[in-house]
Hints:
Pfam families: Acetyltransf_7. This protein is an alpha+beta fold. Helices cover 40% and strands 28% of the residues.
Amino acid sequence: MKLQLADKEKDAEFLFAVYASSRQAEMELWGWPEMQRWPFLRMQYEAQRRAYGQRYPGFQYRIIYSGDQKAGRVATVQTDTAIILVDIILLPEFQNRGLGSKFLQELQAEAGRKQLPVSLTVLQGNRARRLYERFGFQVVGGADTPHVLMQWLPVPGP
């Protein structure tokens, strides 16, 4: 697995495709025809991107690679007090292959070197929550809301 900073122009369609892949099951349930799905997904993607920019100034998309294939995207931002995992999406064909675990290991190693906690929010019931818990993330807020706030703390350095 490797990460590469996304180019806003060159990678725009890939970033959208990854987002759209994360919504396909939902779209199937709605039964919308293709003609309605894509404009809706494009609108939702752009709204998400703008919201991330407002809520997490300075966030960056990075492309996740498996070998030489683009496998997904991750959005992170570093503040003075934490590294925030804003979003991570893997294309369906790259899920359950250890890429998410590898990414979390690298993120935690970086946070450990910088002595910063890692924070994220995850939807209640999202299977990624179990992965985060395996990596030592603890619920620190929102236990009675649709999204829980989780945090991982680095081991204090010498």
